[in-house]
Design brief:
The protein is of the alpha/beta class and 601 residues long. The chain has helices spanning 3-29, 34-53, 57-72, 79-102, 106-131, 156-163, 179-186, 203-216, 252-263, 299-303, 332-340, 350-368, 375-396, 400-417, 430-441, 445-459, 464-475, 486-489, 498-515, 522-529, 553-571, 579-582, 590-600; strands at 147-151, 171-175, 192-198, 222-226, 244-247, 294-298, 312-316, 319-324, 345-349. The structure holds fe (ii) ion (2 copies).
Amino acid sequence: MDMEFLGSLVEEIDDILPQLKAPVLELQKQVNNPKYFARFGQIIDRLFGTCSMLDLNYFAEYFGMMKDICYKSRFLDEEAGQQAVLTLMKKCIYILGRLKESISNEEKTIALMEEVAKELKNASTVKENYLYAIRHGSVSIDPNEDIIIIFEKFKKMSDLVMESEHLMTPTPLFASSLLSFHKKLENPDYKITAILIDASLDKEIWLPLLEVVRTLRPGIPIGLVSGLPESFKTMDLKKIGVTNVFKYPASFETLQQYAVSILNGEISFDNHDSSHDTGPLTDKDDHPIELSNFIEMLTAKIHLCAKNPFDIYVKVGNKMLKFSLQNEKMTNEQIQNHKNKNIKKYYVKRDDYEQYLNVCKQEVARITSDKSIDFGSKISKTASLGAETYSYIKHCGIDKRTINEANGFVENVSNSLNGVLKDGKNLKNPEFIKSFMKDLAGQEHAVSVAMLTGLFLESLEAEDDIRDQIILSAFLHDIGLHDASEKIKSENEDEMNDEEKEIFYNHPLKGVELLKNLGLKNVLLDAIERHHMRLDGHGFPRWEKGSVNKVNHIAEVIGLSEELSHWITRASSDESINPLSMVKKEYFSEKIQKAFLKIFI
Ligand SMILES: [Fe+2]
Ligand SMILES: [Fe+2]
């Protein structure tokens, strides 16, 4: 080899030897100090690079292993392991000194290689004993790595791992009892990819084990490894949460491959042993799961329920796993575990959610038609149904099914407001108006605009057949903003930048685009397009030059309800605002102004 290159290696060794000694001295004073292990690993990494470049592969392998061990040792919590790694580090410094002296002498280099071979073996033993936890059941692993926990009885799988020459990713972690791993399962920092259970463990061990795993880590694939997979044929494995059965002797690579496919989100729940059919994951009706048939739900919402209103699913890769049934109550342990793992969303089936909305709709219909129930309760129940319905629309987008659900809410708005102004007792009654506005203050904007529109239509004495359709278009007036930021949704232009304004100005047209071809009358689509236009030319979309007044009364009712709704929301956090005086009534036609004055002033 070129002496010039070897000279540069010697220079490098001279440079780094004192740097390597510093962390070793610190660790001799106090071995439980992770940063010095990492520091050593960082420095030795340079030599690994240089030796690889100079084709000194044997030494490169040794330094590479030392680098790996030192990095992993940051997470060692056993003193015996830390001391063993420290011994390896000291030996490494010694070998470096020898390498510097012997590099230009072939005989000396060969003698040193024998020493390095011994050291590689020592290093590999330390790695197995303390870093992969194979022999002693240590759990000192890097929580930043993905791991597969393997519960086994006869150490068949750990033998397979030891035979494997490759670095393990995901890292295997062996256990023979649940006790020592309960804490790991509970700890959200451990990224557990999969759990493999040796079925030769007694059933009294692995059945409770399944239960605990399902509770603490719902959604993690569980594989059973068995010499006799046929014996599971009579058991409904899906019911107990098992996703695969592997047949002994399965190579660790097979098991690993399974875990890697989970990590990559490509998991197929196919059985690796073709003699046993666990089949692909299906829903309760045995239909393959289509993700578009699911909608997301905030976990907090479900946690508040006394019983799950739906079957609850979690997403694993691109599949859904059912982990809690309708009418079950999630345990505090599950809830806490999901909070720890920062799971913010559950999934429910769209069909189930529609059924639920249907039940809510019937319940609200019962309340709104009950004369003994006060107006305030009717309004707040109807508004809650509106919020549920709008959230469903936002999740599923606009199609015939969502319009159908929206109509269910609209019917209830009509019923709850029907005749409310007719007997005159609520007209100009400040208490009635105050409590109505208070009920709307915290509501979804779409719900509030639909209900204010319903009230205006009472004042305008609109015909029944068109009234519901107008309330529907009021409910959907801002559907063009469904995927916009909260800032744009607040519809306060003063707070938007140019880019946000452009999105905002386009939302009426976008809304019409989404709603066309779904059976809404043209006059309603026009109203949605023009709900921000005012008679004097204010607003948007802009008037075309020379055009006549194209703001229809429906657009005006929605526009006025919309302005009032925003002022009601702002007034709820600023007492100095009176929404009724803030609305620019003069921008609306006389007929609409009259309807407003009849109710509010
Ligand atoms: Fe709008
Ligand atoms: Fe709006």
